Here is the input.
Amino acid sequence: MTPSVARFATTVASVALTAHVVATVLQNTPDSYNLDLRRYVAGWTIPGWRFFAPNPGVHNVHLLARTRGTESSDGPGDWRDITPPTHHSMLNVLFNPRSRGPKALFDAMQQLSVMQSNYSAMEWMVTSLPYRLVTDATRGFLQTEIAPQFQFLLMNYYPAAQPGRRMLPVLVSTWMPLHLAPESRT
Here is the structure.
């Protein structure tokens, strides 16, 4: 390759990389300032990596559960927070397999929150994968309970809100059997 061709290739690559980085930065501005840049780049998709976190999370999702006996027994028990704790250590940066379960549960709870905020029908929600995942996780957390039925509640907690407005119930499940027969497990 001749020096002039190498210089030309380097210049083209540098300009393309610079344009890509500038477009990515502009794409990651807050949504209220974001322009539709596709008309300027011939319809190409501009990556939306969101590494600047323009829309950070403002609440925590908690999983609460309660149990009750048979229909003729006393009413339901009190709600208990059974959200799995997050364990932190210096090695978590390198290898953190314990985070996968709580992260999957958190993502499922977030999906249920989105479904609820979009007024999804309860009949549709109870057949969804996130609902089944949260149900099975709750059943696992309560496996030592004797009561035959349980119910879960998703609660959003807003730490920065005014006192009295920090907790917002999102979704209350139907009553479900706590202990499944072996043939009904999937």
User: Anything to note?
Assistant: The first strand starts at residue 60 and ends at 68. Residues 60-184 form one domain. The two ends are 62 Å apart (CA to CA).
